Amino acid sequence: MPIPDFEDRLDKYAATIVSVGLGLQPGQRLMINTPVLAAPLVHAVAAIAYQNGCPLVDVNWRDELLELVRYQHAGRDTFTEYPIYRAEGAHQLVSEGGALLSITGENPDLLKDQDPELITTARKTALTHMKPVYDLLDRNGFNWAIASYPTESWASKVFPGLDPAVQIERLWEAIFQVCRITHQDPVSAWRAHITELQARAAYLTQQQYQSLAYRAPGTDLSIGLADGHMWLGGSGTTDGGIEFTPNLPTEEVFSLPHRERIDGVVTASLPLSYAGSLIEGFCLTFKEGRVVHIQAERGEDILRQMIAIDEGMSSLGEVALVAQGSPVAKTGVLFYNTLLDENASSHIALGDGLNFCLQGGNNVPEEEYTARGGNSSLSHVDFMIGSAEMDIDGVLEDGTRQPVMRSGEWAFQI
After folding, report:
1. Are 349 and 316 in contact (CB under 8 A)?
2. Where are the beta strands (DSSP E) in 55-137?
3. Residue 292 and residue 133: Cα distance in Å, rounded?
4. What's the Rg (C-alpha) of the chain?
5. Which pLDDT value is given to residue 142?
6. Chain-centre distance of CA 17, in angstroms?
7. Residue 171: in which H helix or E strand, if any?
8. How many CA atoms lie within 13 A of 229 on its CB side?
């Protein structure tokens, strides 16, 4: 690997994941879900975790080609099968105070030629079994993080036409840059960045906008915000007081929409990589909080199947604001990976909402969460809608509008 000081940077990346991302505490067990090709990063993370008092690092390895083999050869009636022990083991780990790390890096086009209905069946089956874990996550019940690792199949999609070694090198350089690993002290750089995001979130929470109004080419959308919503950004805190930063990188401040107060049309500004398939050039029309029209240039079948997973997938569970001048956007790279692309653009998410975006939300009963506008679903899928041509206004209770973003950049000072 011709990247200067690659091993040193990989160790810094692993240390940032453990300390900033997970906020892993001495005595906490750690479970890692990862592609097999990410083994060098897993080894580095495990070494740091053990050095910091982790009693056990357990790893669930994934092989994308094995997943493809299943779709090519398994019986069409077998896609409701799921290794239940994985879900039960993950739930036991986080229920007993453990932490969870997911590493991404799969081929965005892995399942592009496979049956969308089978993809949806397998996805829904996994989400159903993992629901107890995600329910805890929605209430900040444990510390978790997602990070990425370049693989050949992913890098070839991001940088086509280059030598494979160069593709991997370019993707590593981009990830190290946006994750602040190129800073002399990445942890300190992250702390300063998190402080800025939290200041923006505090400003927006104080305003208590009733809704946000979006205007851009192909987008004319109003998103109501849940009653007693909070804006968050950067790091979160578990019920047990552990600070963690779930997404590396992260450039967003986000909150909870009101599932019944969404109206208008929205056009995606970047492709969506979902379950091994790409959905491109799509727009959705909402009426009274529900998707009533779907259109896509590519992947419309998988988009329709995704939204049909359950009733909650036809409404929104998250609204997130990202400046077009973010470090991820400045790379000029389309990553075909939601973890990265969502931090280059303002975005919204279909499906499950985050309880902790409500005041007192970690302990709010489900019926109150619903009454205040929260949306529930098995799934949560972010897609990007921001651009340098987007303006966003915050609408107060009396109808007064205040600029939140102009031409994709923040329109207020902190």
Report:
1. yes
2. 57-62, 99-104
3. 30
4. 20
5. 97
6. 16
7. helix 164-178
8. 34
Structural element, H or E, at residue 272: strand 272-274
Is the model's pLDDT at 4 over the cut of 80?
Answer: no
Give one DSSP letter per residue of 352-383, joined into a string. Answer: ---GGGBTTGGG--HHHHHHTT----S-EEEE
pLDDT per residue over 353-366, tens digit each? 999 999 987 778 88
Sheet holding 144-148, edge to edge: 57-62, 30-35, 99-104, 144-148
Residue 10 CB neighbours (<10 A) = 21
Q: What are phi and psi of 141, to 5 degrees?
A: -80, -15
Q: What are phi and psi of 45, to 5 degrees?
A: -60, -45
Q: Which of 309, 270, 267, 262 is nearest to 290 (CA)?
A: 262
Residue 160 has φ and ψ, to the nearest 5°, of -65, 150
pTM score: 0.93
How far apart CA 367 and CA 131 sit, in angstroms, is 18
pLDDT digits (tens, 9 = 90+) for 296-330: 999 999 999 999 999 999 999 999 999 999 999 99
| Arithmetic mean of pLDDT over the chain | 96
For the stretch 46-99, pLDDT in tens is: 999 999 999 999 999 999 999 999 999 999 999 999 999 999 999 999 999 999
Query: How many Cα neighbours within 13 Å face the side chain of 91?
Result: 15
CA distance 114 to 68: 9
Strands (E) located in 96-184: 99-104, 144-148
Cis peptide upstream of residue 246 (ω within 30 degrees of 0): no
Q: What are 139-174's pLDDT values in tens digits?
A: 999 999 999 999 999 999 999 999 999 999 999 999
